[in-house]
Amino acid sequence: MQRIGVFVCWCGSNIAGTVDVEAVSEALKSEPGVVFSTNYQYMCSQAGQDIIKNAIAEHKLTGIVVCSCSPRMHEATFRKTAAAAGLNPYMVEIANIREQCSWIHKDMATGTEKAIILGKAAVAKVNLNAPLTPGESPVTKRALVIGGGIAGIQTALDIADAGFPVDIVETKPTIGGKMAQLDKTFPTLDCAACILTPKMVDVAQHENIRIFSYSEVVEVGGFVGNFDVKIKKKARYVKEDVCTGCGICTEKCPMKKAPNEFNMGMDNRPAVYIPFAQAVPKVATIDPNYCNMLKNGKCGLCAKVCTAGAIDYTQKDEIIEEKYGAIVAATGFNPISMDKFDEYAYNQSKDVITSLEFERLTNAAGPTAGKLLRPSDGEHPHTIVFVQCVGSRCAACAEKGKEYCSKICCMYTAKHAMLTRDKYPDTDVYVFYIDVRTPGKSFDEFYRRAVEEYGVHYIKGMVGKVSPEGNKLMVQASDLLANKQLHIEADLVVLAAAIEPDKSARPLATMLTASMDTNDFFTEAHPKLRPVESPTAGVFLSGTCQGPKDIPETVSQASAAAAKVIGLLAKDKLTGNPCVAHSDELMCNGCSSCERVCPYGAITYVDKEFRMPDRTTAIRRVASVNTAVCQGCGACTVACPSGAMDLNGFKNAQIMAEVDAICK
Amino acid sequence: MQKVTSELLVKKASELLENGTVTRVLGWKKGEFSYDLTPAVFESGEELIKDFVFSDFSGANFSKYLIKETKKADGKVLVFLKPCDSYSFNQLLTEHRFDREKVYAIGIPCEGMADVDKIKKNVGDGIIDIISDGDRIVVKTLYDGDKEIAADDVKAERCIVCKSKKCVAYDELLGDNGEVIDSERFDEVEKLEKMTDDERFAFWQNELSRCIRCNACRDVCPACTCEKCVFDNPKSGVENKAISDSFEEKMFHIIRAFHVAGRCTDCGECSRVCPQGIPLHLLNRKFIKDINEFYGEYQAGAEIGSRAPLVNYTLDDIEPVDAVKKGEADNA
Amino acid sequence: MHKDNNAVRDEIIRRSGVNPRKCMRCGKCSATCPAYDEMEFHPHQFVYMVESGDIEPLMNSKSLYQCLTCFACVDRCPRGVEPAKLVEAVRLEVIRKQGANHLKADDIPALVTEELPQQAIVSAFRKYTK
Amino acid sequence: MQVNNGYQPKIVAFCCNWCSYAGADLAGNNRLAYPENVKIIKVPCSCRVNPMFILRAFQRGADGVILCGCHPGDCHYTSGNYYTRRRMALLFSMLNFLGIEKERTRVEWVSAAEGAKFAATMNEFCETVAALGENKRLEDLRCKR
Amino acid sequence: MRKCKTDALDAVFAEIAKSSLLYIPTDTEKGAEYKKWSDGMKMSNALNTVRSPKDFFFPQTEDLMEFKVNGKEIEVIDTRSEKEDFVVFGVRACDVKSFEILDRVFLIDPCDSYYANRREHSTIVSVACTRPVETCFCQTFGIDAAAPEGDVSCWKTDSEVYFKANTPKGEALLAKLEGITVDADDKDVTAQQEKTREIMKKLPLAELSADKFGAGKTEEFFNAPEWDELSESCLGCGTCTFVCPTCQCYDIKDYNTGHGVIRFRCWDSCMYSDFTKMAHGNPRLTQKERFRQRFMHKLVYYPSNNDGLFSCVGCGRCLAKCPISMNIVKVMKTIGKSE
Prior knowledge:
The complex is a heteropentamer.
Chain B: H1 6-18, E1 24-29, E2 38-42, H2 45-51, H3 65-72, E3 77-81, H4 83-94, E4 103-107, H5 116-123, E5 127-133, E6 136-141, E7 145-150, H6 157-160, E8 172-173, H7 187-193, H8 197-208, H9 216-220, H10 248-260, H11 269-273, H12 281-295, H13 320-331
Chain D: E1 11-16, H1 20-29, E2 38-43, H2 51-59, E3 64-69, H3 80-97, E4 105-109, H4 115-132
Parallel strand pairs in D: 1-2, 1-3, 3-4
Helix pairs in contact in D: 1-4
Chain E: E1 2-5, H1 9-19, E2 21-28, E3 31-36, E4 61-70, E5 73-78, E6 86-91, H2 93-106, H3 113-120, E7 122-126, E8 152-156, E9 160-165, H4 168-176, E10 182-183, H5 187-202, H6 218-222, H7 226-231, H8 239-243, E11 250-256, E12 260-267, H9 287-305, H10 317-321, H11 328-338
Parallel strand pairs in E: 2-6, 6-7
Antiparallel strand pairs in E: 1-9, 1-10, 2-3, 4-5, 4-12, 8-9, 11-12
């Protein structure tokens, strides 16, 4: 049986004006468990708190009810007061008799009656309260960044600069991501490589950063502060620590027919390759799908020419196990496949290309050494048609493309159009748009410059059909403002393909128990207030894996995610919210309902041995809540049919006691 | 009349016992009369030959027994699954209630089970024997000699509106697999939905007032597999044994139906076993119908591992107020 | 916008099963239309005019019959609007209007003579009672 | 609020801690009156509300039960109110199926900024329930002695 | 012996109802049920009611007392209601016998005053069976379906109804019916009885014998290996218990209404996992033990304490209602055979 003290606050006249505080404290005296009841002008004042502290000591109180303002105002205050008097802070309940009583009622009798009932409900609850202690867990002071694009790079650098070790896992042989493939960046037209590669070098040289390139995360266990991660380092058949990146092997390799991913397959690379000159790590990789030595044991030329002796055809995939305190997902994006958009003839003509391919075509390090030449015949194109919103903003019922706006296409198309007109003023450039969306610093100015200063033809309308005819592309399009159908004889058509999250994101989300939306973008913990955190504690989001965004936004989010990680790793111990779910193993039947509704992946199952009624033992599957991860929403408690799952601080019995008291 | 015979099943089971594939067999055991078969565990061919029966009265669904039986000993259990049983089987696997490795499941076709109460209503009291013969049933009676009735006339309600003749889980299938049927199982629910609030209340008040809280509906239900039911657990705060002032039985049946909502495969065992003849399956079917209408067709147990509608959501689910209105609009 | 227009619009929307509000005015339907140059009102205008209840001009326009019903617009519309189905629904509107002007279904029985072929009666009903 | 013969409807309002409870506080801050018949029980999230609590309230003499949570998409726990929405859609439909007046139960999404909506909702809900009169169909006579 | 025309039965009911409450079995959609008689209500011809008549004396739930809490004061309130006189008409021989079995539990010292109160105010009019069914086995326990006991025994023939008083209460009841009934010989009754007894001999369970069971046989049957297979498929529900006319176990529970506490008793079943749960736990942990308890109680323990009287009357309700068709007949045959 509890020994409960009731403290009714007047809040000056805020409460006492419409509630007879004396009557309330008197009425609550006779409630079960109540051994002391009083009222005072300002309970939250030092003097008021002293009354509480003294009463706790004098009457050996095991729980207190404060009838006062909203718990949102002073619950924390009174919990501290209780703790100072040696009472568990979770033995405090607040009856909200100000916001939800005195302030909304005018009549003293009404207000008093309601205040008494609210007080009784709080007393009924405290009678069933139990002391709660927040759980503590240690923090592994190391972060994992999954994805080595600009988002991952920035996050890793910021965390590392704060003094914490960081590992970057990148599936490609080099970090750099999509940004490394870009030519110039809008709206300033900086060269992408010029601003990215120094950061890549910083990463490579940073004492706190390790790069696992050509690797992927295969298993994630544990929870915030204590993740156990398995990383598969794929065999690259080159000893990373020995290779000097001199590139002789790539020159000598006789097998030069592998499509060059870095150039979007527009040219070929050798079977042993370094993706690009500034790759980090600058280490060769042998592509087992093309290497003759690995395929049929005939060749071995690279090993012969390698003076460092770095080639190792026997290398195997390697699993690395590491502990982390925080994980950042930075898995990035890809343009969508154009397979479902036959009308643009992407698969019929080499001269219909995506914008990312166009980037490579204009990049000095690209397949044409930066000269804008048609992929089909290497001729200079004179008429170029850019098509916007290819696969973006499609209705779900259209069953192709994505429903969202890809956000970056308007700006990069303006950039492409402008650069083309700048370098090749003899070119006619048409841009077909539905809307031009340029919110962002200096963005609209940039777009207007493309139109006004560079003479790009922006046409409100859409391309309906592209038909290759001879060496030309016949573009049939609508000009909605002129109310005309246009037929343009183009040399090159550039499609602003929608972007989608990288395919690796979905399985990763499953491993992280992080939630995703229907488009496979990671969901943020709160769309406005916690945009860089996943709902899963200890998992953070950086860059386009969370939603389409451009480079400045990506970098901001990357740094924000880093700040969150640093905040987490700076702690020695994590204190949890003690109001977490817990499962009564004797009643749990392991049905998985709770696990399925948990937004945080806090519930796992263990096979445990139990004594059965017939005195034998049997193994049963039961739920186990990770209190460090549980946030205490209670979704599981209702999903559980047997009532095995309950929520500390808001137990079934406590809520029902409140219901009973209110309905009495 | 069932298409597979007891003899065939006994032969199959004996073989599997003999070659060591299984160590025991869950089957229907002969009773005192022709209609009172009891679920039993058989451990030898002799036992099977002596007592195993598969007939129009083999209604009992064995899926739930597997929870207990698979834990009992090593070796596999042979279970015969009628199509509707196979859905329960999958649902239990979805909920990790038994180890699939310890079961050898044989899917068997089912032509629908007979309802002995219907037979009694049809031919009167004093049934000495019941012989199935194709689509006719011959009943030997104490007072009126032999009476012949059409099998269809005494088919159990749940079999008349059978939802599927397709076994969805088995290691081995006897005969050809059937199809999912577009049945009229929601007709009764719709009839109730079309009533006024007052009529519906009166209907359920009359039905539920007969409840004696024997818990047979719960105890037979393959979805009710809690280690301890909230209604048996004094700590749950809602434990009750008694029917009292017409509230407790409503609480019990509403919460029970809610707890199995999205998990109930509509096997109809609850109504079959109710000693008071309360049409409990209508509560479950109401939930199934609502789920189908609100969230898209969902059949619990159709596949292992599917996500039950109540542990799932979409961003644009129907609002509760519209859900209730929808029922109303359908009435109009 | 006239109230009657709304009634016609709603009927056309109901009949076609098309929701013109889904249109984001990209003009891809018009870009893709092989009969564009023949038309007075182009597919994207068609959708917009139905949406705004401006149906009379459509019914009076030859454009209605210049649509080849090739469904290119239906296939390529990124929003799934299905303009060709709207065209068909407006065509039906014209047929029914004409039917009403010409003959009411109720008038038919009086005109039936013994010599009249059964088929003619059936097709008359089919035509005038949609 | 008093309806004929001194009948006072009893209303239980479950409010989620993050949005609706704060919304109720805001109604108080702005002195927006709603009937004293409404008593609020704080839960961490609307998804904490078990159908058993709702039936329990009716058993114990409540005449109406309302659940308030964050607007869909705004749940503090990202998905809690989506589960609430499904659970309550099914539960309320079932109660209606049993002939229990559908106006006695309600779910309303109230954000922390919607003090006015909270007060208006409670006013309206109280009126609706008062018009229905006493809860007879889910009562437990033992609790009314 | 008195008799009246079958048509006059309505008048008989009306006469009885003048001075006391009257309950008769009447047909409903879901079988026969005892209902309070009202004008025009017809008596069911069904062999028996779905629920047994034990409810009249031992209702499923019953308030015993109430506590009111006022501040820190507790007031105890007696909630017992004085019972009116009532007549139960149309009880079959088996169910009549069940009252004796219940009496031996509730009326021995300390007497259950709630039960006794109802018994005192009741008059039982039995009715003889003429069309027993396959699930009947009352004769196993020495009950004669053709000669039911009760305060008044009654036989219905095609055209007439015969009454015979067995107790002073019965005589008093018949006295009230003097205006409707006339004196009669027992010729027709005897003929009916002979016919019924012939049918009884032909029933499928006619040979079932309880001879092997009875007082003092605990050792013999308690450890029988057959209990395992018999109880194997038992669901642990309370159907058999709750439809049984002789099962008399109950639980006493407190219900907190918010205004006070109601102490009530309700039927309990030895098949339930929390049956007789005590502070230390539960004495019968497995379904096998619980299952065995039920049948040992009926066939051995009860007779041991009650002069060899079995606690089963062979009404057959559990045979018809058990979800898995396991029942006392199967138990008797299996366990009995093993010895």
